[in-house]
Amino acid sequence: MCGIVGYIGDRPAADVLLRGLQRLEYRGYDSAGIAVVNGNLSVHKRQGKVNDLKAALSNVAVEGTLGIGHTRWATHGFPSDRNAHPHTSSSGDFAIVHNGIIENYGALRERLTEEGYTFTSQTDTEVLVHLIDKLRKDNGLSLEEAIRQALRVVVGTYGIAVVSSEDPDLLIAARKGSPLILGVGEGEFFLGSDAAPLVEYTRQVVYLNDGEMVVIRRGGFEVRTIDNVPLEKEVHELEWDLEQIEKGGYEHFMLKEIMEQPTSLENCMRGRIRLSENALRLGGLIDVMDQLRSARRIIIAACGTSWHAALVGEYLIEAFARIPVEVEYASEFRYRNPVLVEGDVVLVISQSGETADTLAAIRAAKRRGIPVYGVCNTVGSTIARDTDAGVYLHAGPEIGVASTKAFTAQVTVLAMIALKLAEGRTITEAEMAHYLRAMAEIPEKVRQVLELDDQIKQIAQVYRYASNFLYLGRGYNFPVALEGALKLKEISYIHAEGYPAAEMKHGPIALIDQFMPVVFIAMKDSTYDKVITNIEEVAARKGSVIAITDHGNGELDRLCEYVIRIPATEEFLSPLLTVVPLQLLSYHIAVMRGCNVDQPRNLAKSVTVE
Ligand code: AGP
């Protein structure tokens, strides 16, 4: 959940590092710091955002063309200057930045303290610094070998970068459980927790895997395992470009990504839905489609918004392919010793491809011999590489912490998987043709929903001071109700809950009064009449109802404070349209409340810690 960068070449390292940290700030923004080598080690770090660090350095000349940087999401030790990274050895001759958690740091800290090491921070990272220092001095090891030995001692996760004042042509990095990418330039190299800080300089990248360490000099790099086994690594071409990383004129990444959804959904379906051939092609699953079709049960594991998409996937796959599906929070699945038997298949969903709990769910399934497939947005991410097969979203980089276009792309991929599993078995060719045409129409319909932005902004004006919200939906739109509630609470800090609409009478209806805004998803589908009944129950108790519907009749106008009318579509595709007003409503309320929409408090884009 932190962001780390590194640079070695002939540019001013401080500029490269600070720009890179700004592109990684969505991963954590409690504190930031850099360490630059120029004869000595010049370390500058402080609590706050990267801009605060930049301001502090505006009158400071930080010379040097080798360095590392860090933007922090606090795990051990509250945000402060002292706990900010980089952390330096006692002698101040080398510095380290770390993303991850060292689980045995307590015992190590105790042992190192007994041996005379003094700690200036409360972080687990500082333990690693002193351990490297100790191993180097006690055994006369090179820095590289001391790091290798230290990483064999620590338990937990790490993505680290290390520089030393003793060698101006040496940048070392290693990873286990936290992402790290090497950017390959002309006589220069870049490190990043993901591709965002690299893409403006190079699109040639090397993905490091767990247990690998890279030693970088201006003339080249060498990758070995932590056990010192040399490795040949392939250089890949990044799909992203700089324009995709920038805000593109929008005030926030989140708004840009909401507005991008027609395009991201077109990209998600491109080459996969082929109307002229009435064909649906998921290249990443071709080799395992039979295994999926014959699955005794499909278990979908994910977190947060991706878990909401998984719930839609359950309804889709069971409705179309009649294969039993169970949805699990990855964080629960990994610890509860689930019963998995031959014929089970696990599907994981992750935008970042680095979520620690989801990664652990993969390993829990693989330990039991269960095949694991992935639905992921980040090419080359750990989840993409740890799964046996999968489907990329092709939604483009999602920078805003609140997931939006990834959700609609995930639901789209799950709909394609459901139809693919049903093909030739539980649906006819004519039905497939009809469903594929309906899917192909979705991007234009999302564009129509986005045109309601002004109406939704006005509604946000009315409800921006609310303290609580309820979101209610049925069927395919029950998970959308959950997603709408999550969007609102995570960026506006208003408490919000999502429920199946029918569940309200089993408790939540006690909350209804004139101060409780209730958002209903009331599409004219198989559950519409029941939803109307629920709306009447809320209206009878003076609840303030906002309805999302495709229905034109006056019934809803009579019952609701506000009605947001969106285009109609097939029931199974309605989440792709009903979620968009909820994304916009949460965005506008959060902006009106002065919240930091792209970097909400306490959150980070990729939860790489457990
Ligand atoms: C959603 O808006 C949040 N950012 C969060 O719940 C996120 O969906 C969750 O952490 C899972 O992330 P992933 O899809 O990258 O695995």
Tell me what you see in this structure.
By secondary structure, the chain is an alpha/beta fold. It is 36% helix and 23% strand. The chain contains 21 helices and 27 strands. The strands form five sheets. An eight-stranded antiparallel beta sheet has the order 3-2-4-1-10-9-11-15, covered by helices on one side. The chain has a seven-stranded antiparallel beta sheet with strand order 5-6-7-8-12-13-14, with helices on one face. It is globular, with a radius of gyration of 25 Å. The N and C termini lie close together (10 Å). The mean pLDDT is 94. Bound molecules: 2-deoxy-2-amino glucitol-6-phosphate. Residues 303-306, 350-352, 355, 358, 401-403, 490, 606-607 line the site of 2-deoxy-2-amino glucitol-6-phosphate (AGP).
